[in-house]
Amino acid sequence: MDRSTSAEKPRPARLTLAARRKERSERSDKRAEPRRERVPRLDVPTDTRRQLVRRPQMDADTFGRFAETFARFMGTARFLIYMTLFVAVWLAFNALAPGRMRFDGYPFIFLTLMLSLQASYAAPLILLAQNRQEDRDRVIAEQDRTANSRAHADMEFLAREMASIRMALGEVATRDYVRSELRSLVAELEEQRVRDADGSDEDDEDRDIDPSRR
Predict the structure, then answer these.
(1) Staple 110 to which of 57, 104, 115, 168, CB 3.0 to 4.6 Å?
(2) In the chain, how many domains are there?
(3) pTM for the whole thing?
């Protein structure tokens, strides 16, 4: 009975190649779904991690102004005088004071260390002041360039307007031209009047000579 029942059961039809490919793609999509969920989304803000040691925050503009003030002070004669007096007092005290009171011996190593420390701090401050001055000069140069370009454009516009005005004035009758034309017309009228007067006199003389014309 078991053999007959097993023989009577219909066998499943073989899957076509397209169906197999479809099943494989579905399986790969199901496997890839959990991986996609692990990828963080761009619209979700990330968690901010707290730093164990907080970085010191300082206003860059304030520090830059301090650097410029320090650089200006170091470039004055007052700083040189103060520095010279400080070094002179240091050397005199350590050379003339009793042995127990001297805190820096003849090689003056501590003084050299202080001067080198001052130079190591002064150099970056001076460079920072120079960088700020360069940025300021760059902005001023850009403003001057834009102002020069605008002035150049205005000069070109004015030159074109002056040329058009000269061309327009060349076609307009000036006062001297009108006067010269009126004078020439008056002279022509005078000549015409003289000619007419001469012609009338000649006609009168001809009538007196030949009375038959009357």
Answers:
(1) 104
(2) 1
(3) 0.45
